[in-house]
Amino acid sequence: LNLIRGPFPSKHTDQHHLVTIPRLDVMESLNGSAIDPTIALTILATGVVALFFYFRSATNSSNSKNKNGVDRLEQARQNSSIDVEAIASECESSGKPWKDPSFGHDSYPGNSIGQLELRDGERGKPLILGKEGVSWQPPHKFGPTSRPMGVRGDGLPTWLYSDNDGDGIASAAESMEVDDILQGSVGDCYFLAALSAVVQHHPDLADDLIDETFEEYGIYGV
After folding, report:
1. Which of 206, 222, 204 has its CA nearest to residue 77?
2. Is the pTM of this model over 0.70?
């Protein structure tokens, strides 16, 4: 059970498309040219998603006593080396959300954004994320409201789920669409679009992957 900094998602506003059509620049890279980082990321994201579903399918087919999402989350908590409840208790006492001490939201050249260098476009000049103004912003900093707009099944506000179609059922799949992803200089739009596409076709996957029990303290389990 890993902890990630909340509110969620808080890393980038950059977002993307799942590309499955062979591209000329990929073929050029295979012929000896240096491959563009965004193309490499596309291939990696697609491979990770494919492997995930392969192993998930293999596990389900070999286990006749499949656990539901709640059981899997509870098992993850038990196997975690981190005492999540103790951390949540500390956050409640201090009145401050949890922050990852090894991946803080400090400004350039902090250890979360640091001096990661990307290229702005296939032929653009290299840029250093933090130095060029790319910053880490939580949802309440860039969203239309400062409070979560979604409502969880237990009635608590959430950044993760929404009921866009008004059927009374809040779902992670309704919180994102592939068309929401915009190309930006961060260069991870392909990966975000791939995740969004997966969630659109397998909404239960997103609901089961994230443990938002302690969301109010900025803690999420993955």
Report:
1. 222
2. no
pLDDT at residue 106 greater than cutoff 80: no
Q: Are 13 and 137 in contact (CB under 8 A)?
A: yes
Confidence band, pLDDT 50/70/90 cuts, at residue 201? confident
91 is catalytic: no
Q: Is the pLDDT of residue 64 over 90?
A: no
What phi-psi label fits residue 168: left (phi over 0), alpha (psi between -120 and 50 degrees) or beta? left
The answer to whether residues 14 and 37 touch, using CB atoms and an 8 Å cutoff, is no
Cβ distance 185 to 40 under 8 Å?
no
Which of 118, 172, 189, 194 is the catalytic position? 189
Neighbours of 171 (CB within 10 A): 20
CA distance linking residue 52 with residue 33, whole number of Å? 30
